[in-house]
């Protein structure tokens, strides 16, 4: 590190400030964050151009400081395996789908008992499902009351309500916010 141990550094304003607060690995080029963490993920305190403060995860902060346009749907996808790396060159902005593809190709979630249990629960739920898209269409087209429909299909009235209002068994291409897309 460039600064003295114990020196007050304030918040991070630039990529250079981020680099100064990190230990640089000469072999990999990773900037290993050595200040606040949440779990093993870097937590960076930023000072924005208007003077306000915010904090965000290390890779996202690196993207922000490097000038990437960050929206809530933008994910910081790493190019290296180090969880504490905040080098902007080791991360790229991507969509949720790209992040999911990276996770599956990286293998980080493979062989985790919690993921295996979640997959088993989802599989059982699909197997024990009482409704189908055809039955959902029938429910939406019906003039019967929700109580009558619930008895006929063997589900709760809350499930019927969710189908009628598009929360369950929504038609492909239909948004719950603005109808068909």
Sequence-ordered SSE layout with sheet pairings:
Blueprint: H1 15-20, E1 22-24, E2 31-33, E3 37-38, E4 41-47, E5 53-57, H2 58-65, E6 75-78, E7 91-94, H3 96-106, H4 113-127, H5 133-141, H6 146-153, H7 157-164, E8 174-175, E9 179-180
Antiparallel strand pairs: 1-2, 3-4, 4-5, 6-7, 8-9
Helix pairs in contact: 6-7
Question: Could you characterize what this model shows?
Answer:
With 181 residues, this protein is an alpha+beta fold. The chain folds into two domains: 15-113, Homing Intron 3 (I-Ppo) Encoded Endonuclease, Chain A, CATH 3.90.75; 120-176. It is built from seven helices and nine strands, in the order αβββββαββαααααββ. It has helices at residues 15-20, 58-65, 96-106, 113-127, 133-141, 146-153, 157-164; strands at residues 22-24, 31-33, 37-38, 41-47, 53-57, 75-78, 91-94, 174-175, 179-180. A three-stranded antiparallel β-sheet has the order 3-4-5. It has a two-stranded antiparallel sheet with strand order 1-2. A two-stranded antiparallel sheet has the order 6-7. Helix 6 (146-153) packs across helix 7.
What is the third-level CATH name, the topology of the largest domain? Answer: Homing Intron 3 (I-Ppo) Encoded Endonuclease, Chain A
Strand order of the largest sheet: 3-4-5
Low-confidence stretches: none
Please tell me how large the radius of gyration is.
24 Å
Measured distance between first and last alpha carbons: 53 Å
CATH class bucket of the largest domain: Alpha Beta
């Amino acid at each position: 590190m460039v600064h003295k141990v114990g020196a007050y550094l304030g918040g991070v304003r630039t990529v250079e400030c981020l680099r100064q607060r990190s230990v640089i690995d000469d072999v990999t080029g990773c900037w290993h964050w050595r200040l606040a963490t949440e779990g093993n993920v870097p937590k960076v305190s930023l000072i924005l151009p208007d003077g306000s403060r915010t904090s965000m995860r290390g890779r996202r902060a690196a993207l922000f400081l490097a000038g990437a346009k960050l929206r809530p749907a933008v994910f910081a996808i790493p190019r290296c395996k180090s969880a504490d790396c905040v080098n902007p060159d080791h991360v790229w902005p991507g969509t949720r789908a790209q992040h999911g593809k990276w996770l599956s190709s990286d293998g980080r979630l493979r062989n985790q008992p919690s993921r295996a249990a979640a997959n088993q629960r989802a599989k059982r739920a699909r197997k024990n499902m009482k409704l189908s898209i055809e039955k959902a269409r029938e429910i939406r087209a019906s003039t019967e009351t929700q109580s009558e429909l619930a008895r006929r299909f063997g589900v709760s009235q809350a499930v019927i309500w969710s189908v009628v209002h598009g929360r369950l068994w929504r038609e492909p291409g239909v948004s719950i916010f603005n109808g068909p897309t």
